[in-house]
Design a protein that fits this description.
With 44 residues, the chain is mostly helical. It has one helix and no strands.
């Protein structure tokens, strides 16, 4: 087994996945806030 060298792992896929997760979370948050505002305006 090769000795581990700190900082040698390629993390581009993890970074892309995390960026996608943050983008999706932002969209879900925005849509949820929009729905809550809509419900408040129509007195639901």
């Amino acid at each position: 087994m090769a000795k581990h060298e700190h900082g040698s792992m390629d993390t581009t896929e993890q970074e892309k996945t995390f960026a996608g997760f943050l983008k999706m979370s932002a969209w879900v948050t925005g849509i949820s806030i929009g729905i809550l505002i809509f419900l408040a305006l129509v007195n639901a």
